[in-house]
Amino acid sequence: MYKFFRGILAIAAMSLLSLAFSQPVPAEKGVQLVVTLNSCDGVADKLYLFEFNGVGFRALQEKPIQDGKAIFELASTGPRFYYVGVNENNLKPLILGSEPEVKLSAVCQQLRNAQFLTSKLNTQYETLREEVNQLRMQSNQISQQFRRAQSNPDETAALVAELKKTDEQKLQLLDSLKKTNPYFYQVVALNTYLSYQNYGEGYDNELLYFVDKYFQFVDWKDKDLEYLPWVYEAWKGFTETITNTGIQKEKHEELIRQALSAIPADSRTYKLALGGVIATLQTKNHPNFIPFAKEFVQRYQGSDPGAAQLINSQVSRLEAFVEGGTAPDFKQTTPDGKEFGLSDLRGKVVLVDFWASWCGPCRRENPNVVKMYQKYKDQGFTVLSVSLDTDKTRWMNAIESDGLTWNHISDLKGWQNSVAQMYGVHSIPHTVLVDKEGKIIARNLRGATLEAKLAEIFGE
């Protein structure tokens, strides 16, 4: 199972340099955020303070920009994440609620690059965040080396030892932050996954270990989590990993619900976690987006009607693109200039294959698609390739070079391809398997999963 778990080994490794972080004492008379702004003329005359609700950003306060400043007043709540900006597309995250005053300096058009003038907590957090990102990249490299070294026992043993050292650093850091900074402890806990190679004894595979242990250090009853966007991010990563294993829809939903059941269902933390789940499933166009999104709507349509309405509109739009829905018809231009589309293949089982000549993973998958086409074409199976190319010559050369002898279409607009946008394609290769009546059988089948599904439909 290890090959399914790219990058999860290091998502929160951090050095002991962060041990000095301290927890500010809450102020008794509220807190003030003072933002000094430059270059705002003609750009904005107001500044907004937002919070994240698991789906999007909700404006809590708006303040005029006067004499190059905007000033916000908040109650002392203990540390919470907020966002400040002139709109939702250019925001600076920051922690407010415990320090009496936080001062920022920013350019109106570049709020996300604002600098803290006074705030020990935010300065420490930015250091922490940078360190997390740096060590994530470092551990990803170890993970990649481990995959490549599977046939070399000596090398894999050395890499497992490196992972062990990283695991120990994580545990030491967690232990120190638990007393010196409980708020940062929760950030680290949400991002600490100990390696299966060193801690997976007793589990049949890493998937089972991953589901059981990914959040093992998180106390889901801790109130600090209710306004911590890392909850959302952690659940996005968790769901993406589960989804990338390619397990069946029913098992996929079961494992995610099993993990969610640890969170108090009436907490704001659950809302952030559920938001992370549906964000990933929407991006993946996974059929389980529908049940989790409907749960979100049911739970929060009263308390947060705006977020529920947004999710509900996404459900309505995507229901046609999941298993069992009718695949929307389309037409585009073939290499020889003719119009061709999905409805022209009605009566056949069609693999709609989104690809491009410049896409390495697509080209590596092509031999398997050719194999499946040759095996089942006489039984009513075919392929319709939709290219995200912009160069017609490269597109045609790739078709010939890879021996792709089925139908091909494109509008040569790259990622702006109208069919790709219609089907919510955010990455390639991406496939949609459609039955003889035009109903979607499955999405994102390739390699062994495509082979198994076609064998199920047509027999060996």
The percentage of residues in β strands lies in: 15-25%
Give the N-terminus to C-terminus distance in angstroms: 26 Å
Average pLDDT taken over every residue: 88
Q: Structural class per helix/strand content? A: alpha+beta
The overall number of domains is 3
Element pattern in H and E: EEEEEEEEHHHHHHHHHHEEEHEHEHEEH
Task: Please give the count of helices.
Answer: 14
Q: What share of the residues lie within helices?
A: 40-55%
Shape: globular
Note the main sheet.
5 strands, mixed
Could you give a quick summary of the protein structure above?
With 460 residues, this protein is an alpha+beta fold. Helices cover 42% and strands 18% of the residues.
Q: What can you see in these coordinates?
A:
This protein has helices at residues 120-148, 153-180, 182-189, 196-199, 206-213, 229-244, 249-260, 268-283, 289-300, 305-318, 360-376, 392-402, 418-422, 448-458, and strands spanning 31-38, 46-52, 57-64, 69-74, 80-85, 91-96, 101-107, 115-118, 331-333, 339-341, 349-355, 381-387, 407-409, 430-434, 440-443. The chain is an alpha+beta fold. It folds into three domains: 2-20 and 123-321, no CATH class; 31-122, Carboxypeptidase-like, regulatory domain (Immunoglobulin-like, Sandwich), CATH 2.60.40; 331-458, 3-Layer(aba) Sandwich (Glutaredoxin). The strands form four sheets. A five-stranded mixed beta sheet has the order 13-12-11-14-15, covered by helices on one side. Strands 4-1-7-8 form a four-stranded mixed beta sheet, covered by helices on one side. Strands 3-2-5-6 form a four-stranded antiparallel beta sheet, with no helix packed on it. Mean pLDDT is 88; it is low at 1-28.
